[in-house]
DNA sequence: ACCATTACGCTACTGCGAGTAGCGCAATTA
DNA sequence: TAATTGCGCTACTCGCAGTAGCGTAATGGT
């Protein structure tokens, strides 16, 4: 999300990302996605709203970056393929179940429906790295990996959207069983 | 969505649902979910905006009702369980792929994230009838059927949200293969 | 020391869409 | 004929995303 040309002269940017990300997640957790307005996030971070817009082009982009920072890389460990897939699914399920994170994810995702530039960010900056990592680990063709990601993430988000709550562990395990019959 | 007490006196409601639903789907198809404002839908239907709000409590509720009308019941036919599941999945995939319908569905779904009353409508009026129908046809326990619905619908919507396009037939078939290993 | 340059905070705005209020009129039933 | 309810219309309120412009702080270059 940083500018293409990092400037050499002038006042350097202060270290605000950590503060802003923390305030963003806290706001979404307490107020929901729609309730976490840019004004509130700015206030919660002790920062001017205009500063947010100097760094991120939109609310969706800010929250996407925030999630990217909060999630980090997928762990792809396990004795065999099945365990690799299962542990990766448990990891993303846990990330989405973290308070605030699920609502934030679903919110960004929904904004992306009406904002192609945000969809670009989401698919290129978010999905793509995970797809490459999984593909390297599993050696599946890319369309299969994309389907795998659609199934896992889509299922978790759909449950979240319908019930307002993250998916229970038992259902996560049922989904893993199902996926493993194909990708295990 | 109609009032709990259909009144006996006074001017009866005119037959506007078909006109409004058609105008709604057309607006979403041409302008996207966010672009299809209540003002535009009203104008396109040749109806006052206040009339829309007399019948539906929110934009999301209107579009949910519109989709309910456009989708109709799931066909649950087929020689064996596998064919029943496969044809049902192809049916919902086709419905979501219809121009406008996918964007409308995804839009309502995203509004529901921040609107519990809309979530209620979506899960009770939309998901529940389909769940019951599938459950009767397959004889699976309800949590399994709910998972099946989450997987199928979630996957289709996730693909739609990430790419802006409905899922290609080949991928739908791949998803069917995968699901049938568990539910076939 | 002194620019030029860039960042930050602040106040004040624009634009737009969801949802509402109240009026006059139309179409029913009792 | 009176009461009641629906419709169209105009005109709002409210809230949020995003923007403009100013004064000031912090840096590098000369």
UniProtKB/TrEMBL annotation, chains A, B:
HTH tetR-type domain location is 14-74
Protein name, UniProt field: TetR/AcrR family transcriptional regulator
From the Swiss-Prot or TrEMBL record, what is one GO molecular function term? transcription cis-regulatory region binding
Q: Which residues bind DNA?
A: 37-56
Q: Which InterPro entries match?
A: DNA-bd_HTH_TetR-type_CS, Homeodomain-like_sf, HTH-type_TetR-like_transc_reg, HTH_TetR, Tet_transcr_reg_TetR-rel_C_sf, TetR_C
Q: Which PROSITE patterns match?
A: HTH_TETR_1, HTH_TETR_2
Q: What keywords sit in the KW lines? A: DNA-binding, Transcription, Transcription regulation
The protein's matches in SUPFAM superfamilies, at most eight in alphabetical order, are given as: Homeodomain-like, Tetracyclin repressor-like, C-terminal domain
Q: What is the lineage of its organism?
A: Bacteria, Bacillati, Actinomycetota, Actinomycetes, Micromonosporales
